[in-house]
Write a structure and sequence with these properties.
It is built from 15 helices and 22 strands. The chain has about 500 residues and is α/β, with parallel strands linked by helices. The protein folds into 2 domains: about 270 residues, Aldehyde Dehydrogenase, Chain A, domain 1 (3-Layer(aba) Sandwich); about 180 residues, Aldehyde Dehydrogenase, Chain A, domain 2 (3-Layer(aba) Sandwich), CATH 3.40.309.10. A 7-stranded mixed sheet has the order 14-15-16-13-12-18-19, with helices on both faces. α4 runs parallel beside α5. Bound molecules: NADP nicotinamide-adenine-dinucleotide phosphate (NAP) and magnesium ion.
């Protein structure tokens, strides 16, 4: 349980003057109200932006390695607080405790990696066309970065935006998802307690309309980094572009896992179950389509169904639970809506397909791990992001059809192929339209020091994580220093 969660503005924890609050509910047991969170107004948001703007000059003037040292301290604090952050994450978002620990560890790795980048904010030195002229490039921060994040990785995604924004010398206004305010509070505390000066990080709780939209439109925010749905991201991208802001959006996915005729079917089935049902299918990198060559499809489907049926669904805070609930009623209803669509479209239900209401499950937003077979590649089930524990199996005759079906969706985040043929695997790297891809392993996962993000409708702007994270949060300055002490020879132009 938590105290009233407040905003963090200019180094002070303060509730909105509005006095309004929202309940934070445990999606695994809605009888459990975890506490309340303040609900901010546009004025609260503007106050946070003003604080971030006022703090920016001093922060960018702080030597980068000193900024990095604060992030190393944040790494240490998050490590110390790992268990309590993981518990809060399970309670408010619903993923199982082992999954939550994994997410916090990933955040720790990420902050640590980015802290090291403080000593590598390098530019280039370049030969000049002019005599006695020193030409070089140097990175410069953008100013105040507006960070808008979703509920599904509410520790990790904020961490992978906040850390590079700060290390590059920007100050931050962070607007987390309304559904996951507790973890947002804990993440902000890690950075604040690590020793950031007042105003460098600011947290504003509240709705997309009252807080998010003000961040998007405010003239003192030149950079917007967003992760979330295509519906919101697409509008944010346009609104930002109209104001000539730098914008980065990471959005939906419909990630395929291809199983070819020569694949190790057991490995492929286990990876598919992990990717489809891990984190209740609420990962942007979840496996939602298995594209399987007909020869091995019966054996593959039978094994995935067996694995799905073995999963223990329940409150993720308890030991032995494999899969938690949907994050809220709306998300659960989306999953149930797609079960109705599957029925209409004639997909063959192999397991699941319903809400789970036995015993205590009735108090949470649980649905059963579900497998549909014989799904048409162009059906809604196979094309639209569901964001729940639902796998669609699409049967194909060969490699050519498999890759065509894999690329036939609007999204392009991640994917995977199972084959023993090295040449096929390389061809897959050439042909697949996803920003990340795996050979003989699940579609999920991403390491701190490698770029993360998608192609096509999934992503616009520079990649997050890795060294590429710094590219979004900096601007280049190109410098020419003339030490001839004479007028330029005009013939050189
Ligand atoms: P969402 O509904 O788009 O919300 C994302 C964030 O935007 C929330 O903080 C939301 O605030 C805010 N927002 C809503 N309306 C806004 C507006 N008009 N202006 C500014 N901000 C606004 O997404 P979600 O349901 O939280 O997250 C699930 C989605 O995220 C899925 O589509 C998933 O694929 C995607 N995702 C993508 C990646 C990736 O890297 N590609 C990673 C994780 C998740 P409220 O919470 O107050 O509505
Ligand atoms: Mg909640």
């Amino acid at each position: 349980m938590h105290e009233l969660l407040t905003n963090f503005v200019n180094g002070a924890w303060t509730p909105s003057a509005s006095g309004r609050t929202i309940d934070n509910i445990n999606p695994a047991d809605t009888r459990q109200v975890l506490g309340q969170v303040t609900r901010s107004t546009p004025d609260d948001t503007r106050a946070a932006i003003d604080a971030a703007k006022a703090a920016q000059h001093a922060w960018k003037s702080t030597p980068a390695p000193k900024r990095g040292a604060i992030l190393f301290e944040a790494t240490r604090l998050m490590t110390e607080r790992k268990e309590s952050i993981a518990k809060a994450l399970t309670l408010e978002e619903g993923k199982t405790l082992p999954e939550a620990r994994g997410e916090v560890q990933k955040s720790i790795n990420l902050i640590e990696f980015i802290a090291g980048e403080a000593r590598r904010l390098n530019g280039t030195t370049n030969p000049s066309e002019m005599p006695k002229t020193f030409a070089y490039t140097v990175r410069s921060p953008l100013g105040v970065a507006g960070l808008v994040t979703p509920w599904n990785f509410p520790v990790c995604i904020p961490a992978w935006k906040i850390a590079p924004a700060l290390v590059a010398g920007n100050t931050v206004v962070f607007k987390p998802a309304t559904t996951t305010p507790w973890t947002a509070d804990l993440v902000t505390r890690v950075f604040a307690d690590a020793g950031l000066p007042d105003g460098v990080i600011n947290l504003v709780h509240g709705s997309g309309r009252e807080v998010g939209q003000v961040i998007v439109e405010h003239p003192d925010i030149p950079a917007l980094s967003f992760t979330g749905s295509n519906e919101v991201g697409c509008r944010l991208y346009q609104d930002g572009a109209a104001r000539l802001k730098k914008v980065q959006c990471e959005m939906g996915g419909k990630n395929p896992l291809i199983v070819l005729g020569d694949a190790d079917v057991e490995l492929a089935a286990v990876a598919t179950a992990q990717g489809a049902f891990g984190s209740t299918g609420q990962r942007c990198t979840a496996t939602s389509r298995a594209i399987v060559v007909e020869d091995v499809a019966d054996a593959f489907v039978a094994r995935v169904v067996e694995l799905a049926n073995k999963l223990k669904v329940g409150n993720g805070i308890h030991d032995g639970v494999d899969m938690g609930p949907s994050v809220d009623e709306g998300q659960m209803n989306t999953v149930l809506k797609y079960h109705a669509i599957a029925k209409e479209e004639g997909a063959k239900l192999m397991c699941g397909g319903t809400r789970l209401t036995d015993g205590d499950l009735a108090h949470g937003y649980f649905t059963a791990p579900t497998v549909y077979d014989h799904v048409a590649g162009d059906s809604r089930l196979a094309q639209e992001e569901i964001f729940g524990p639902v796998l669609s199996v699409i049967r194909v005759k060969d490699w050519a059809e498999a890759i065509e079906v894999a690329n036939s969706v609007e999204y392009g985040l991640t994917s995977s192929v199972f084959t023993k043929d090295v040449a096929r695997a390389m061809e897959y790297v050439d042909e697949i339209e996803t920003g990340m891809l795996h050979v003989n392993s699940p579609t999920v996962g991403g390491e701190a020091h490698l770029p993360f993000g998608g192609m096509k409708a999934t992503g616009v702007g520079q990649r997050e994580m890795g060294q590429t994270a710094i590219d979004f949060f900096t601007e280049w300055k190109t410098v020419y220093i003339d030490y001839t002490g004479t007028k330029r020879d005009s013939k050189l132009y």
